[in-house]
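for the recovery benchmark. tokens below, seq after
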């Protein structure tokens, strides 16, 4: 669904946007994706800020980071004037400064926080949280999934870099997105054997090819099992070393298999409009993963996602474009403030 243009009367001089996180790809891409979506609606300059705290301050909860500037590491970006028009923070590292940004900027900066900050919401002009967090408030906007950087243009550009490796692969091209260990889920070598077996059988049954990518959370033993078990199929396997073809895979794929531990990967796959199937993982605790179940149920209700068992299924659907919706609402609230 194309992004709606902001009415002419809302467009003024170029805005300065800060995209603030700890620099980890899964966190930074959310802040940067929303900033880029705003910049597609109105003239803007995006400044990326990466905040990292010195030990032992990095382990302190947000409420105890009372002097956040002094606690930053030498390799961290500094937070100082001139202040941005819009602050877009994501992740725990952004919180100590985000909570103070409106006051420090003298009210100049419109402060946006992605994800549930698990603190008082009053210091923020807008909190953008996933629906499955069930966060409520006058300044809260709920999204299905997470903000991201996926656009057809970005994916097509990434594909050109890998075209020679990907163009000749047989269809259907099945992109397998593997997460791994988290607070709610696990992925050991034994379960990786089962995933590799079922994925291999499903692809062989269709005569297609595999596009496999693992993440930093994929345990080494499971990574080895999956890459070794699927490498014999036509396709391409990314084992976490070298340049990452992730965006090129999203463009090249006809359908996706995504492990259930990652909201980001499922949302990014859903942004393409191609069928998504969710691959189950072992739970680390009884009842763990309840929020993920809510998220997947919302995707199923929209015809986006289906469970993966032993075969490929699902049909195309209108691409999920929640980042564009969030950018539109953010900019309208900024202009009305």
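predicted aa per position
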């Amino acid at each position: 669904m194309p992004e709606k243009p902001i009415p002419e009367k809302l467009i003024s001089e170029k805005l300065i946007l800060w995209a603030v996180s700890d620099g980890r790809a899964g966190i930074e891409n959310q802040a940067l994706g929303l900033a880029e979506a705003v910049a597609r609606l109105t003239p803007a300059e995006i400044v990326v800020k990466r905040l990292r705290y010195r030990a032992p301050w990095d382990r302190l909860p947000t409420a105890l980071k009372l002097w956040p500037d002094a606690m930053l590491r030498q390799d961290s970006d500094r937070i100082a004037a001139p202040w941005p028009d819009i602050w877009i923070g994501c992740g725990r590292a952004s919180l100590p400064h985000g909570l103070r940004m409106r006051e420090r900027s003298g009210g100049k900066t419109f402060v946006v926080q992605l994800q549930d900050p698990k603190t008082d919401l009053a210091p923020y002009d807008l909190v953008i949280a996933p629906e499955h967090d069930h966060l409520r408030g006058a300044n809260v906007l709920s999204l299905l999934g997470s903000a991201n950087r996926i656009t057809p243009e970005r994916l097509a550009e990434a594909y050109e870099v890998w075209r020679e490796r990907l163009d000749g692969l047989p269809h259907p091209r099945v992109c397998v997105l593997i997460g791994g260990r988290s607070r709610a889920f696990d992925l050991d070598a034994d379960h990786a054997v089962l995933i590799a077996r079922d994925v291999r059988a499903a692809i062989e049954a269709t005569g297609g090819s595999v596009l496999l990518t693992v993440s930093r959370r994929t345990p080494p033993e499971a990574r080895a099992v999956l890459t070794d078990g699927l490498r014999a199929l036509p396709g391409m396997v990314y084992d976490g070393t070298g340049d990452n073809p992730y965006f090129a895979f999203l463009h090249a794929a006809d359908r996706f298999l995504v492990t259930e531990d990652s909201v980001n990967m499922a949302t990014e796959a859903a942004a393409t409009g191609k069928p998504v199937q969710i691959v189950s993982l072992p739970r680390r605790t009884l009842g763990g993963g309840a929020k993920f179940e809510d998220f997947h149920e919302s995707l199923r209700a929209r015809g986006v996602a289906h469970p993966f068992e032993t075969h490929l299924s699902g049909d195309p659907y209108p691409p999920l474009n929640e980042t564009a919706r969030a950018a539109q609402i953010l900019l309208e609230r900024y202009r009305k403030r």
